[in-house]
Amino acid sequence: MSTNFLPATYYEQFLSEQTLRRRPSPIRSLYPLEKTPNLISLLAGKPNASTFPFTSFSFTARGPTEDPSLLGPAGGPRDTDVNVTIDPEDLAMGLQYTDTAGIPGLLSWLGGLQEKMHGRKTSGEGWRISVGAGSQDLIYKAVNAIVDPGEPVLLESPMYAGVIPMFTNLGCELHEVETDAEGISADSLRQVLESWPQGKPKPKVLYTVPYGCNPTGMTASLARRKEVLKLAREHNFIILEDDPYYYLYYGTAERVPSYFSLELEQPEVGRVLRFDSLSKILSAGLRIGFASGPERLLAAIDAYTGTSNLQTSSLTQTLTLGLLKKWGYDGFYTHTRGVSAFYGHKRDVFEQAMDKYLKGLCEWVRPEAGMFFWFKLNVPGEDSNAIIRSKAFENGVLALPGTVFLPKGGTTPYVRAAFSLLTPEDVDKAVERLAKTVKDARGEQ
């Protein structure tokens, strides 16, 4: 099967009116010209670096390990620690304004990562990378770059609560796509699309979290992903692949390829806009995420960045690159395997407590990625909201009622519990308190 990479002009139909009106930054659009040999630039109002007080940066980090027991508090230097010193040239870039899409060295390293993990080459396929202040920053800009106020959108349900306002604030027409133990339901998606009113424009985007979905913890199966990609081609929409838990997969089966990877098997390539995050594997406070996708869509995202925060912090990008270069790709893979094993153990500890206290009181499916359990309360009625917000809190435990993850709101008996931070002792106490809450709601002693 021959592969057709969609041209940049194809994406004009997907861009919002706001994006089409937006003009490139008159200053930042000329930044690349400053690199012209023998050119004297009077362009940018950059501060003179000689006034910056920082003269060097170095830090200590753990060496990459697959042993989750070594990921806890260090308690002092270890033999496996690595010392990272930022090169003077890299530090100079890290202290100054830089390219909107990201510092070149980090973009290059991340491009190599995407080729190794997803089989996508940064040349000849019409895609590139932009770095953001966390992946949510990039998702927000992507939504505004593509979706006009009031337009219909496809959203898996339940879905990450932090993204719902991006669509509701635009007054979007929300079309929920069901999910189950295999992730997003291709049958539900097909039903929504095939019953679409004739003459009415169809949605331009589908939002989905395919690995360790927040809140359900489910991972989309290979068959589901392939069917969703087929529907994207047939009904002409962009898949917003939000994948912050990709490296937190601890299932025993072989890792399912990403949408970004699988679309290479499609007759046409370029309908996936992928979002990765380093928050769960390096540091949430670094605020480093990156988007990979069609160049025209990334340019639209960069246009928003150029007029909002100008760029992601050069310094955090430089520190991140310093560690990644020190580790190399093999070290990065080793570290992420250790992180996934760490959360797999956390999952097991939490489920042991659920088996101990919640059997018969709740129902759940064991997650194979991420940091959440999504469980159903076996109580009269269909709403966990009042039980969790009041009764559970009174019993000394806090969780999230499932209604906050429904795009259109409504009632649900489901609850989300995060297991990422608790010690085994606190897990036991928390789940025991949840069990008491459910028993109270059922009128049991």
TrEMBL record:
Lineage top rank: taxon: Eukaryota
Residue ranges constituting the Aminotransferase class I/classII large domain according to the UniProt record: 125-434
Key words of the record: Aminotransferase, Pyridoxal phosphate, Transferase
Listed CDD domains: AAT_like (cd00609)
InterPro entries xref list: Aminotransferase_I/II_large, Class-I_PLP-dep_aminotransf, PyrdxlP-dep_Trfase, PyrdxlP-dep_Trfase_major
Cofactor annotation: pyridoxal 5'-phosphate
Sequence similarity: Belongs to the class-I pyridoxal-phosphate-dependent aminotransferase family.
Official protein name in the record: Aminotransferase class I/classII large domain-containing protein
